[in-house]
Every structure is written in structure tokens, then in C-alpha cells.
Amino acid sequence: MFIFRIFATTILALGVSITSMAKEPLTRKILFNTDWRFSLRADSNASTPYYNDASWREICLPHDWSIESRPDRLAPAGNDGGYYPTGIAWYRKTFNVPSSMKGEKVWLYFEGVYMNSSVYINGKMVGGHPYGYSSFYCDATDAIEPGRRNVVAVKVDNSHQKNCRWYSGSGIYRNVWLIHTPKLHIENWGVVVRTTKMTSMEAVVKVTTTVVNETARDQKLSVVAQTGSAKGISGEVALKPGERRDVTQQLIITHPKIWDVTTPYLYTAKVTVLSDGKPVDATYQTFGIRTISFSTNGFLLNGRKVKINGGCLHHDNGILGAAAFDRAEARKVELMKSAGFNAIRTSHNPPSEAFLAACDKIGMLVVDEAFDGWREAKNTHDYSTLFDKWWKQDIDAMVLRDRNHPSIIAWSTGNEVIERKKIEIVTTARKLTEEIHKLDNRPTTTALAAWDSDWEIYDPLAAQVNIVGYNYLIQKHAADHQRVPNRIMWQTESFPRDAFRNWTIVHDNDYVIGDFVWTGIDYLGESGIGRYWYDGQVPGESYQRPLWPCHAAYCGDIDLTGWRKPISHYRDLLWNDKEKLYLAVKEPDGYYGKINLGLWAVWPTWESWNWPHHEGKPIDIEIYSRYPLVRLYLDGRLIGEKQVSRATEMKATFTVNYSPGTLRAEGISNGKVMETRTLTTAGKPAAIRLQLENSSIEAGEGDLAFVQVEIVDKDGNICPNADTMLTAKVSGAGTLAAFGNADITDTNAYNATTHKAWKGRALLVVKSSKKTGKVTVSVSAKGLKAANGIIKAEKNEQTNLSL
């Protein structure tokens, strides 16, 4: 039987907040996000150092220019890209380089630029990258002029459409760093920490550091790795000019604390290069100690069997667009964790560093995916145009950057590749897996999708990965297990409404180690997937026809504002013991129109007992329960009771004639009421209520605060049908970053100060400025009592290299 075992690795020292993000010595790595200028124009002269950019807009990174406009039905990105504009733009930044950097190595490190970037320093091209989801370094050593002002200019070309099947965003949408070191230095992405032994008494950690000699003479050095009292010192190493070498130490940690999804404990190690006994370069790595193994007997985390309850996620941050603010990236992980997920598939590209750092810190498993496709195109200008030239560099960038994250349990080489029936695809798949395994020993997977009658033809392709991913095809598991008994399977995409079936398949069959629903959170682009529609509206799926005015997907368990849909509570109840009772109401068919469901849709179901003009007509109420018996009451009158079990799919449905009042569900075990849930008919909208997800931010133009906006009646009940026009105002030490709702057909711009509520809710996002002090948030609407909130902007200790 094939068994794949891997031991824990490290994570980069990136925290959820900006302050904790830069744990590397500030003499080595400097956040480079502030004081940029931006212009949405194609001007080739913008690369020159003396170009006049005084009229350009001042911005702070990360930045997505597409989200700053409203969807346009004629936009070249079309239905796939959410109808958002793309194009060509330039970024410029003037900055000082101290004389002390003379003779050092200098890089600019871009975590992500979408796409086709070209980077110039003082007019000299120093690099760039075509693939918008890869991180990359630009060696600026020969272009930087220490002791004077320097200019970096970045051209971003996202004009070739269509190049993506979802909303990509446009611009320098992730962080940028300036890195400088001596010419005898630790290689970028050059520290790897692996746990080679783990018991309750002792863990053995191997630290491998790649050191590079870019001086003109022979060098003798040693490397010290240390965490707490555990310390490893290498012997003396000699390097010739231009030579690089791996240096390894072993650390022994007594009574180790283990990284797990429930207790994600992290250590920090310092790695120092010494020359003539003096430190010349150093970096910090935070690492987690854990083991993982996969077999047809299941997935084991630290020797404990874990069923993978996963969700797929695209990279955008909803109403913020693609801009990968650290706080927004962490919030996605927090939303998934609170919804009961224990794993995320990063569909269909490597995620941001902040996202992975949050997974490490919060305790979320990750399948890190490289590409959507390979050589054959899904869209005219997609990765197929780059694959043969760039696949190796992009695979290496993903694995080298991410291999130190304990949250990552597998690498995915692709998704639903078009050329799956061509014989050469087997060789391609093998090369991708071999390249990954040169750099890391975790398993590979790929997401296969085919509705052919000759499914077995894919067996040679499936054999090239360690875990076979099934997109919407896990019903083939039994036949495949009989035919290929050593195959480890997981469902890499599944329909949301198949939650119960998919849970039972994973629960009952150890060789099916998990399921990843499409998707965890609603996202921009792939417009209309997951929607329901009424007779008279444009029918069908997003891949069949344009579905304007839809500009986003509605297939997530969580909507664009972060609100958990009833399907989220149902899935959580199936997989976990945390949530045991939930009450929801199914929208009556015909109430707004006859309901039609797409493949990824679930029946519209709401936390609402407001159905005006439906009095006396039947309506279905659902109770999801882990308790064996449930009862339903309306205004204290017993409607009925029902047994709940696996045979009833852990839910009960009651049909009642609607009348306003209060619904109450009871979960009963051994004759005792264990838990209750209620829904009360809300009165007329009376006021606005603000719910601050975080009451403080860090000054410095990079932190965010999320504010839930609710329309409530005089008793504080959310008015679930309210679609009032809201006006937002942010003053003081912050600005309005985004304002919007979860309605995927609302084409108002997310940077507008006015927006409708949808289902009684909206979301407002505040961005910090350079100031400290109070940020005042105000939301008002005609005829409603306004609401105000205070957010404290605190000192940000992160250093930026600026003017």
C-alpha cells in the first residue's frame, strides 16, 4: 500500500497584522508600499527617471485599479472578469537610498503583480514577470545609486483579454519589499526547516541554509541556527566567488509544542551567517512542528485521523477587489475557520504570503495550487500562452516561497486541464510532480474533471500525482477504488447542495480523505455561477451566456460581506460538533417569481420570518440538528416535532401557513431541551446599527477595519427585506476603502460613498492613514436613525523606506 509521510516545515515570519508582519531584521527587509504614484495610461516614457509624474495620483500599495470602477457591460474581461475594466497602467516611486548600501546586494521583491509587469530603476529595466500570481525578485544592485534619490517605475499590462476565468484585478495588488544584504548572504527563499523526528519528549529539526558568495574573493563562514535554548552551529565552510552552498544544522527541541489545526503553535528560529566570527547576514523563520501522512486508510495529522472539510477560494477580497491587504487576507481565513472549515484549496493559483501566514497562525490546512490550465487554452490569453516557457520558474517560485508553511499539506499542479486526453499530458504531469519533489517532499495532486464515459482513460494521468483530485465526480469513488485500490482520493470541487452526500462519502470511506466545496466564499467574476433566477430573467450558467448585470459568483457558503448563508451552518453541523441547531426559512416558490436553480445553486433560504403579503399561505421551515428530536413553535404554539438522524440528512422540514410572529426551534435529547433558536418578524426599519469587527487599526496606510452595517427595527431586529440607500462617511485618521453589499447584480462602484443595503445588510471597510488618533465612521439613510462608530488608529512600528 502506498503511504506518503511528511514531517513539518517552517513558515515565513509573517503575522496577521502589519506590525508583526516584518520580523526579519529591518536592516535587511523593508516594506516598500507607501508613497507611490499611479497613472492609468500607456506612456512608454514613464520608465525614465526624470519623467514628470506630479499630476499622477498618490497611492499606497497593495492596489487594484480595476475595482475602482463600476462594472461595464462592454468591458473586454466580460462575464469571466466581472465586467470590470483592465488595461495598461504605470506606478512610480521616488526614494532615497542611503550611502551605507554601497557595495551591497539590493532587490525589489514583488509578492504579486497582475500581470505582464516590467520593472525599471533609474530608467534601467531590472526585471518583471508575466504570470500575475507568482512572486518574483528583481536584482536592482547595478541600477540602484546609493547616496541619492532613485526612481522605480513599474508597467503593468492587463490589456490582453480574456486571460482569466474569474476576476483577476489589475495592478501591484500585493506587498512590495526592498531587500538589501552584504554580498556574502543568505539566498532569497534560502532557509528550509524540516522536522525529521517528533515525539512528545523531543523534536529534531533540520535547518538548511543556502549561502551565496557574490564577493570577488574566497570566503570562510559558519552558520548559526537557534530557537530558544536549541542551537546548531555549522563547521567552517569555504566558498569561492560566485559559489552557493547548502549548510545544515540540527536542532533538538525538548517537550515540543505541536502545530495542529486546533493548537497551531509556532516557534521562531534565527539563522545567522558569520564571517571571521562576525554576523554578516541574518533572517528569522517561524516554524511549526507537525507530521502529516496520507494513505488509503486516511489522512493523519500528528498521527490523528482528520477528515478534510475544505472549501475552494479565489484570491479576491470581495468588495476590496484583488488588493491583498494583510488584514483582508487574514479575515478570509478567519471566516472560513468560523464556518467550520479545516482546509482551503487556493483555486487556481498561489495565494498571498499574508494568506498563508494567517493559515499557519489560525490553524487551517492548505492545498497550494499552481495553475488553472497548462498548454491548451480556456481563454485566449490565459496561462497556456506562457506554460512552456514559464512553468518551471513559476512552480519553483511557488514551492520555494511556500515550502516552509506547516499549513500546506499538498501541492496542486493544475485544474481541469483541457488536454487531458492527449498522451503527452502524462509526461507533462510527471515533470510537474518531479520538479516539485526536487524542492519539497509533500504530495502532489491535480483536479481532474471529465464527464466522459471512458473515465478510466485518465488512469495514467492520475498515476502521476500522489492524491487524485475529483471535480464533481466523487460518485465514481467505489468503482475506482475497486479498479485502483491504492489510489488516495479527495473531491477537489463539489456542488454546494451535495453537502450531505459528500460528507457521507468522506465519512464512510477512508480512502476518500476529504471534500472541497465550490466555494467557501463568494467572489468577483465568473459572474452568476451559483445564482438562482426567476422566470423572465436570463436563464442558464455563466459558461453558457453572459449574465449581466451579475458581476460576481453566488456559490459560496459565505457571501461577499462575510455573512454565513444557511448552507454554511448546515455544512458546519454535518462536519463538526460546534454547531448543533439552526433555524432557517425557505423562500416560497413564486413569492418573487418561479425559482430556477443552476448547478452550483442552493434553494434560497434565509434567516427571515418576514414574508409580507404571504399571510395564510404555506411556507417551509428547515431545522438542521445534531439532536435526535426537534420541535417547532410559532408564537408558543407547537407546530410539530420530528426525529432527526442521518436517515433524514440531519434536518427536518415543517410546512406552516405564514403569519408574523416568532418561530422557535428546540433541540431535544433524552427528553430535555438542550438548545433553542428563534426567528422573529421584524418591524419597520427604524435605525442603522454598526458592528465593528475590529475596533483598532495600525496607522501607516496599510491596515483595515471591517464594519458590518445593519438596518434594524425599533427592537433591534435586522430587517431582512430592507434595501435602503445608505450614505457612509469616514473622517479622522482613516479613509473609506470600500462600501457595498452582497447582491451580485448591484453594479454600483465599491468605492462610492452611497450604496444600497441588501437583505438588511452592507459592509464598510476603513483603511488606515499615516495619522494616529480616532477614525469616525458614520452611516446614514433617509428616515432612519444614523449610526456612528469610533476606531482607534494606533502607532505602526513598521518602517518604510521613503523620501
From TrEMBL:
<dbReference type="GO" id="GO:0004553">
    <property type="term" value="F:hydrolase activity, hydrolyzing O-glycosyl compounds"/>
</dbReference>
<dbReference type="GO" id="GO:0005975">
    <property type="term" value="P:carbohydrate metabolic process"/>
</dbReference>
<dbReference type="Pfam" id="PF18565">
    <property type="entry name" value="Glyco_hydro2_C5"/>
</dbReference>
<protein>
    <submittedName>
        <fullName>DUF4982 domain-containing protein</fullName>
    </submittedName>
</protein>
<dbReference type="InterPro" id="IPR051913">
    <property type="entry name" value="GH2_Domain-Containing"/>
</dbReference>
<feature type="domain" description="Glycoside hydrolase family 2 immunoglobulin-like beta-sandwich">
    <location>
        <begin position="185"/>
        <end position="290"/>
    </location>
</feature>
<dbReference type="InterPro" id="IPR006102">
    <property type="entry name" value="Ig-like_GH2"/>
</dbReference>
<dbReference type="Pfam" id="PF16355">
    <property type="entry name" value="DUF4982"/>
</dbReference>
<dbReference type="InterPro" id="IPR040605">
    <property type="entry name" value="Glyco_hydro2_dom5"/>
</dbReference>
<dbReference type="Pfam" id="PF02837">
    <property type="entry name" value="Glyco_hydro_2_N"/>
</dbReference>
<dbReference type="InterPro" id="IPR013783">
    <property type="entry name" value="Ig-like_fold"/>
</dbReference>
<dbReference type="InterPro" id="IPR032311">
    <property type="entry name" value="DUF4982"/>
</dbReference>
<dbReference type="Pfam" id="PF02836">
    <property type="entry name" value="Glyco_hydro_2_C"/>
</dbReference>
<feature type="domain" description="Glycoside hydrolase family 2">
    <location>
        <begin position="688"/>
        <end position="787"/>
    </location>
</feature>
<dbReference type="InterPro" id="IPR008979">
    <property type="entry name" value="Galactose-bd-like_sf"/>
</dbReference>
<dbReference type="InterPro" id="IPR006104">
    <property type="entry name" value="Glyco_hydro_2_N"/>
</dbReference>
<feature type="domain" description="Glycoside hydrolase family 2 catalytic">
    <location>
        <begin position="297"/>
        <end position="431"/>
    </location>
</feature>
<dbReference type="InterPro" id="IPR006101">
    <property type="entry name" value="Glyco_hydro_2"/>
</dbReference>
<dbReference type="InterPro" id="IPR006103">
    <property type="entry name" value="Glyco_hydro_2_cat"/>
</dbReference>
<dbReference type="Pfam" id="PF00703">
    <property type="entry name" value="Glyco_hydro_2"/>
</dbReference>
<feature type="domain" description="DUF4982">
    <location>
        <begin position="616"/>
        <end position="674"/>
    </location>
</feature>
<keyword id="KW-0326">Glycosidase</keyword>
<feature type="domain" description="Glycosyl hydrolases family 2 sugar binding">
    <location>
        <begin position="87"/>
        <end position="182"/>
    </location>
</feature>
<dbReference type="InterPro" id="IPR036156">
    <property type="entry name" value="Beta-gal/glucu_dom_sf"/>
</dbReference>
<comment type="similarity">
    <text>Belongs to the glycosyl hydrolase 2 family.</text>
</comment>
<keyword id="KW-0378">Hydrolase</keyword>
<dbReference type="InterPro" id="IPR017853">
    <property type="entry name" value="GH"/>
</dbReference>
